[in-house]
Fold this sequence. Notes:
Blueprint: E1 22-25, E2 30-35, H1 42-52, E3 56-58, E4 71-76, H2 85-102, E5 108-114, E6 121-124, E7 138-144, E8 147-153, E9 163-167, E10 172-177, H3 179-182, E11 183-187, E12 196-202
Antiparallel strand pairs: 1-2, 2-10, 3-4, 4-5, 5-12, 6-11, 7-10, 7-12, 8-9, 8-11
The structure holds 2-oxoglutaric acid and fe (ii) ion.
Amino acid sequence: MSVDFQSSLFDTATTPEVARIERRALSSGAWVDVARNWLADADDVFATLVRDVPWRAERRAMYDRVVDVPRLVYTYMIGEELPHPRLTTARDELTARYRPELGEPFRTAGCCFYRDGRDSVAWHGDTIGRGSTDDTMVAIVSLGDPRRLHLRPRDPERREEAFAVEMGHGDLVVMGGSCQRTWEHAVPKVASAGPRISVQFRPLNVF
Ligand SMILES: O=C(O)CCC(=O)C(=O)O
Ligand SMILES: [Fe+2]
């Protein structure tokens, strides 16, 4: 796969210890945490994932409705070695940071490859598993070209609360509380974008 990505432009990652996580409280008990430049070695992680993840096409029904999913995906399940040691470190740091609130570790790592601005994911909540009934967390590490994560309340009466978070190279975005069942998120198509990889860490039985 050829990827037109100038990694030198993005060589700004700090160490996770230095990055600050900022929380935005949302309605209905949902929240979003954002930490810029959270992942160290983001350039190397991105290049390794492009090369080594066994990407497969996905365009099918998912979540609680039929969702058009033009992007490449692969999910690392429990016990599967992650494709870069930095991701293992990242998962463990996320578990250390969030376990008091989450009550359990992050276990799986779903990877999505948005090849260009035409790749996207439509409005959904991660509600296949416990996200439909329980508070939980989905921690996203973004690599490559920035894309926007759009969020909106499920309740049509509250749609004016909708907003978007830019997910840049090495950034961490965590959706927590009731976010998967009371809010929806999407990564819409854009006129022009280079490749982006999203790594989503989730607890057991959250999809
Ligand atoms: O691209 C992203 O960071 C979000 C992906 C997502 O919401 C999902 O795969 O459930
Ligand atoms: Fe999602």
